From TrEMBL, chain A:
TM spans (from-to): 32-56, 68-101, 113-135, 184-204, 230-254, 306-330
Domain of life: Bacteria
Keyword presence, Cell membrane: yes
Membrane topology term: Multi-pass membrane protein
Protein name per UniProt: ABC transporter permease
Automatic annotation (TrEMBL), chain B:
Protein name, UniProt field: Strictosidine synthase
PANTHER family on file: ADIPOCYTE PLASMA MEMBRANE-ASSOCIATED PROTEIN HEMOMUCIN-RELATED (PTHR10426:SF88), STRICTOSIDINE SYNTHASE-RELATED (PTHR10426)
SUPFAM superfamilies in the cross-refs: Calcium-dependent phosphotriesterase
Recorded GO MF terms: hydrolase activity
InterPro entries: 6-blade_b-propeller_TolB-like
């Protein structure tokens, strides 16, 4: 190995740079920037301000956060739905005022005051909600006006009642408990806020109303078209928002027991800064409780820190304003460029050194170039698109998948007529019959499905166990590829890659990373588990006649292996063929006890060299348009026959790919070989001169018709 | 230092500082399939150097020179070989002036064949590299202008010349009588076509994707046609005025990328047969060992005409100042690839596609200059 190769190998082996792309494709990555800003703030302020992280200041911060966090959360909910609520601050101050009047002046019971305050909040919100939601006024102007009106009410009432408020004093224990008490050492108000935040988190991320809210903010018209009552949802957000602000005001009143002429002034700007800093989109459709919490903590710590440093109020506000501006800028750039960055860094090629390709035209080579597949009989030309796999039943009917999401059945014996046997929706790939004649189908992007002879479609499985170390969620099946059934009914199927969707399978070739696997579905328990992890584009699979093992292909390593799932060699894998001249796809049984193997494309020296230079491929993926990328040569296909020892016994070619440029599957049936190709528009039928004219795969697996 | 920072920034942002962005085939180069539709006159593998000597059509295949004539009784639709003679070594280029013929023979020199087989002399002027004479043109019967593609690679190793980014080409003026040669331009990146028009000289500079013009002594060099999406090759005169320009291979973004990837390129050159390189080619699809690109994968058994390809056929009609007027193409799915030579004869343009081994005819000779 050349020294540069060693370096490339070590780098691709130990530097997990594919994780960058996987992390970037996570939804929560939006929070990474605000979260690191928060950590930075804590570290910086903690080191320059003594006592910043002391218990007393933390407890103070916790109580402030309880109120401020609620307001930010309220604003976030409105912003997610695509609106904005500037009146949060004046509703907050009204709530403070009326709580104090209720408790201190009229000495009403605390629960009654709380209920009244919440009703008042709902009322304020309802005004906004009707105006914005039903009368379709501009949210910004409407809430600006209600901000002024509510504030004016506050000013009027405050002047009249300020003296009596100061004189009055509540002896209620509940009032004290809310204001100064703790639950298990945690301030009561914080507990209330955290419970509300948790509830909102569940609603927004797990429940239907939350998803509808996000839908309304993300695409109002689409949400309407999808049947969501957009006006009512918008109305509701303002009601909820004002109610939460009212609660925040109530908590504030309980904590301080007094109010001033400046209570709540500028709170809306602070809350808006917090929401935007946290990563909530101003345009709607994006936001979460975590973002609201991060944002409000950031703003609170900054304000407290600045006050601690002796910076005056107006300057603090200026600084906050500048931060708001900066956050809006970063948010805009991030949204604009995130997908571009992701597209550039996601492809992360690995080092792959293939053994030298066998010279197919050398004398003595088991491979003999020929054009035997050029003159095949054609079935279904133009009627089907993308028959990745073909299979025949005992009655000579031919089944194949199409990229339109159908399984098409051609009636035997002449295969001139056809019908849509089942419509599942995803592109059907590998197929197999089980003992009772059900057709099992792997469907790209969907999972493993079963079609009964009476055409009923059942989903068998679409998830497997989640592995702990994978960043990409590998529990969902992304590209189930080929399937076969063990004698006891267990279903073994391959998943080609967990990193790409079916349409991008060739990009996985460019990457050649071990991101495929073999999966087992047990119909007796209904459970699915990953049998062999970390395979390089796991593809064809077929049971060996011993009933204890199967052959499987790994496309990009050009190899065939055998795995024992039962018997004395249980759990072991053996390489059967380590160097094919092309990329193996499906494997199926031949009538003489050997195996047919489809090569979907051929290896070329230019790509083989690139496989040893992951940096070259990575730069290619970034610099060159995907249509111009170097790919496996799939314009020439071939079918080879091999035995259990891995010896090549026969081969059939269509050089130049006249009829079958890319052969992904072949199936022997009563003396004929049927050919399928995932991007072809026909099925080929080749007469096998020496094959058993009565051999049928379904009988060979499950015995003659019961 | 500033250059390094600029390069690093350009690398980060993906700018192109080196002119390696392939321009689109548009305007006068708008794609068509006219070369595929053109009548096929003769299938002849490796046909090159079509020239008209007097009334005789000549072409070369390897070390042999064939005389071609319309097939008797075939109303002139097809050509056939009526005579062949060998010059012993591969012919790299030919030029004719009236009945006078110059043949560049790789490693030997230039054979001057006088009318009627009166005399044949081999000249090898001092200083002139005769391994890689890619094109020749007579200014007058005693003055021959010669394009030497590269001082480092013989003509048949043109892929090496490109992939090693060699810029060792030159243009020479040979006095046939005195057997002396003067270099009039050097440091060119594979000059591959040459023609004299009045007192100006046009030279295709393949690896810089342009045609330059200069005086007959090499003075006043100008870019006559630049930023081409393909590698320009030989230039033939048009009777109506103006020129025919053959472009022997298309540029390809992946090739441009590989040209920047020094390590991959050197390992490719060292270990891989040139036929299977990521490099322009005269013909593709002959072997499954050739690399292919994403867009060239067959879908529903179709190769899209606009697929990225290593080879294509491209003949461009240019006016007297070498501005492009219109073009004749054979695209990725076509089969008239690698056009290296052309000549007008019998009222039509014969197009020699060396890659596909075909001679086809373009009948529209008139009306280009007027447009």
């Amino acid at each position: 190995m050349a020294s540069s190769d060693t370096l490339a190998y070590l780098r691709s082996r130990y530097l997990p740079d594919h994780l960058i792309g996987e992390l970037l494709s996570k939804r929560w990555i939006d929070n990474a920037i605000p979260f690191s800003a928060l950590l930075l703030t804590i570290v910086v302020l903690g080191s320059i301000i003594p006592d910043f992280l002391s218990l007393s200041s933390l407890s103070d911060l916790a109580r402030q956060f309880a109120e401020f966090g609620l307001v930010v959360l309220a604003l976030t909910v409105v912003m997610i739905s695509g609106g904005i609520d500037l009146s949060v601050a004046s509703v907050f101050s009204l709530a403070v005022l009326f709580s104090l009047i209720g408790v201190n002046v009229y000495e009403l019971p605390v629960p009654v005051v709380l209920a009244g305050i919440l009703v008042m909040g709902m009322g304020c919100g309802a005004i906004n909600g009707v105006l914005v939601g039903y009368l379709r006024l501009r949210a910004f102007l409407t809430t600006l006006v209600s901000l002024i009106i509510f504030r004016s009410i506050y000013e009027i009432v405050f002047v009249k009642m300020s003296t009596s408020m100061m004189v009055g004093f509540s002896m209620s224990d509940l009032w004290l408990f809310i204001g100064e008490g703790t639950v298990l050492g945690v301030p009561t108000s914080l507990v209330i806020t955290l419970v509300i935040a948790l509830a909102w988190h569940l609603v927004l991320s797990r429940m239907r109303p939350g998803w509808r809210l996000t839908a309304v903010g993300g695409a109002r018209r689409s949400a309407f078209n999808a049947g969501i009552d957009v006006r009512f949802m918008v109305f509701l957000t303002y009601v909820v928002s004002s109610t939460m602000c009212a609660l925040a005001g109530f908590l504030f009143a309980a904590r301080l027991g007094s109010t001033g002429s400046d209570t709540g002034v500028g709170l809306e700007v602070q809350a808006l800064t917090a929401a935007v800093l946290g990563g909530t989109a101003i345009g709607g459709g994006r936001g979460s409780v975590a973002k609201a919490i991060i944002g409000s903590l950031l703003v609170l710590m900054l304000t407290n820190g600045l006050i601690n440093l002796g910076i005056s109020g107006p300057i603090t506000s200026t600084i906050l304003g500048a931060i708001l501006l900066f956050a809006v800028f970063v948010d805009m750039r991030w949204q604009k460029h995130r997908h571009r960055i992701l597209a550039k860094v996601y492809v992360s090629p690995a080092y792959l050194s293939l053994p030298p390709a066998p010279k197919v035209d050398a004398p003595g080579s088991p491979y003999v170039l020929n054009d035997r597949l050029r003159s095949v009989e054609i079935i279904g030309l133009g009627e089907i698109e993308g028959p990745e796999d073909v299979i025949l039943d005992r009655d000579d009917n031919l089944y194949c998948g199409t990229r339109h999401g159908d399984i098409v059945r051609f009636f035997g014996p002449d295969h001139k007529r056809s019908e849509v046997f089942a419509h599942i929706g995803g592109h059907p790939l590998g197929m197999a019959f089980d003992r009772t004649g059900n057709l099992l189908v792997c469907i790209g992007g969907m999972g493993l499905f079963q079609v009964a002879p009476d055409k009923t479609v059942t989903k068998l499985t679409d998830e497997t166990n989640r592995s702990w170390t994978s960043v990409v969620d590998d529990s969902r099946l992304r590209l189930a590829d080929d399937v076969d059934v063990a004698p006891d009914g267990r279903v073994y199927f391959s998943e080609a890659t967990i990193r790409y969707e079916q349409e991008d399978w060739a990009t996985d070739a460019l990457e050649s990373r071990a991101s495929g696997r073999m999966i087992c579905y047990d119909p007796r328990t209904g459970k699915t588990h990953t049998e062999i992890p970390k395979l390089v584009f796991a593809n064809g699979v077929t049971m060996c006649p011993d009933g204890q093992s199967f052959m499987f292909a790994e496309s990009w390593t050009c190899s065939i292996s055998r795995y024992w799932f039962d018997g004395p060699k249980k759990g072991t894998t053996e390489r059967v063929i380590s160097s094919l001249p092309g990329y193996p796809d499906n494997i199926n049984r031949a009538s003489d006890g050997n195996y047919w193997l489809a090569l979907l494309g051929m290896r070329g020296p230019a790509l083989d060299l690139a496989m040893r230079m992951p940096g070259f491929r990575k730069r290619m993926a970034r610099r060159v348009a995907p249509d111009q990328w170097l790919y496996p040569n799939i314009n020439t296909g071939c079918v080879v026959k091999f035995n259990e020892k891995g010896e090549i016994l026969d081969n059939l070619w269509d050089l130049g790919g006249r009829n079958h440029p890319m052969i992904t599957s072949m199936r022997e049936h009563r003396g004929w070989l049927y050919l399928g190709g995932v991007s072809n528009n026909r099925i080929g039928r080749y007469r096998l001169p020496d094959a058993d004219p009565d051999w049928c795969g379904q009988d060979a697996y499950w015995g003659p018709r019961p | 230092m500033i250059g390094a920072i600029k390069r690093a920034w350009a690398n980060f942002r993906g700018f192109d500082l080196t002119g390696s962005t392939v321009p689109p085939m548009d305007g006068p180069l708008r794609p068509n399939a006219k070369l595929d539709a053109a009548p096929l006159l003769l299938e002849l593998a490796d046909v090159d150097n079509l020239v008209l000597r007097g009334q005789q059509i000549l072409c070369s295949v390897g070390q042999e020179i064939h005389t071609l004539a319309p097939e008797i009784g075939n109303s002139g639709e097809a050509l056939s070989i009526t005579g062949t003679h060998s010059v012993g070594k591969p012919v790299t280029s030919m030029a004719a002036a009236g009945d006078l013929l110059a043949v560049a023979v790789e490693g030997e020199g230039i054979r001057i064949e006088r009318p009627g087989g009166a005399s044949t002399e081999l000249i090898r002027p001092e200083g002139l590299n005769v391994e890689c004479i890619t094109a020749m043109a007579f200014a007058d019967p005693s003055t021959l202008l010669i394009a030497v593609g590269s001082a480092r690679n013989p003509a048949h190793r043109w892929k090496h010349d490109l992939m090693t980014k060699t810029e060792a080409g030159s243009v020479w003026r040979v006095d046939v009588g005195a057997r002396s040669a003067v270099s009039i331009a050097s440091g060119l990146a594979f000059p591959s076509g040459i023609i004299v028009s009045k007192d100006r000289l046009f030279v295709s500079e393949a690896w810089r994707h342009r045609v330059v013009s200069m005086g007959l002594d090499g003075s006043f060099q100008q870019i006559a046609l630049g930023s081409l999406p393909a590698y320009p090759g030989r230039i033939a005169p048009a009777a109506e005025g103006g020129f025919w320009l053959a472009m022997f291979a298309p540029r390809n973004p992946l090739v441009e990328f590989v040209l920047k990837e020094d390590e991959y390129r050197s390992r490719m050159i060292e270990t891989i047969d040139p036929e299977y390189w990521i490099a322009p080619s005269l013909v593709t699809g002959r072997s499954f060992l050739e690399p292919i690109q994403g867009g060239a994968r067959k879908k529903l058994n179709m190769l899209k005409p606009w697929s990225p390809t290593w080879s294509a056929g491209l003949v461009v009609r240019c006016d007297g100042s070498m501005s492009m007027l219109r073009n004749y193409q054979s695209r990725a799915d076509g089969d008239v690839h690698g056009v290296t030579s052309m000549c007008e004869a019998d009222g039509r343009l014969l197009v020699g596609a060396k890659g596909s081994g075909k001679i086809v005819a373009i009948d529209e000779l008139a009306g280009h200059a007027a447009r």
